[in-house]
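ugh ok so i messed up the first submission bc i forgot one of the chains. this is the corrected input, ALL of the components this time, i swear. 223 residues overall. if the numbers dont match what u have on ur side tell me asap before i send this to the collaborators (the ones from the other lab, u know who)
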Amino acid sequence: MSKRPVLIFDFGNVVAHFDFTLSCERFGRPLGLSGADFLAKARAQGFVEVLKVYERGGMSSADFHRQLCNVTGAVVGYDEFATGWGDIFTPNESVHRLILDLKKRGYRLFLGSNTNELHALHFRRQFETLLDQFDGLVLSYEVSHLKPDAGFYLACVEAAGQPANECVFIDDVLENVEGAKQTGLIGLHYRDTAGLIDDLARIGVQVSDTLLVPETINPTAVG
Ligand SMILES: [Mg+2]
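and heres the new structure output, hopefully the right one now
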């Protein structure tokens, strides 16, 4: 690699963990349905395809709310829906530390996420300080492409402003890593943060030794 690579991080289950069943439980409860039953009902009504259209930017949040209520029988106002749908994320702390370290070392960082407007509104607020470290966010509903379609990765390359072979795409879903590779990017499969740090070292991206210290040892907590 001639130039220092750009690092592009997936969001869900890399930068932050998420639990989609929380939304299903919230919407299912008033109907007397478990989260799993609510999800099964939504799936049986073609929800997966509807979500893809929404995450590709082909449907407004208001229309998505209406459609989900129509197909599941959920009775929930828009504002309550927006919160119940959006509030599903928890930080992946070790990746947060890695991102801060990489930023300090001068790496340019981008987010590359299949997501939708309501999730993005929520996580951009929740993780505002961390996301400020990024040089740009490539969000499927804004670029009208979903991973693993080539168009998504090309949008990342364009945002990064460097050739594809100088862009590293980090994702927990193998299919999305393969999509990145097929589009000419360097793909890294995220399984855990220690493994990612090893993979980054292999392509010449070094991080601070302190990141390798086990999380239980906290030097500020002495005494
Ligand atoms: Mg993911």
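quick check: The pocket of magnesium ion is lined by residues 10, 12-14, 171-173 (CB under 6 Å). that seems consistent at least. The chain has a mean pLDDT of 94.
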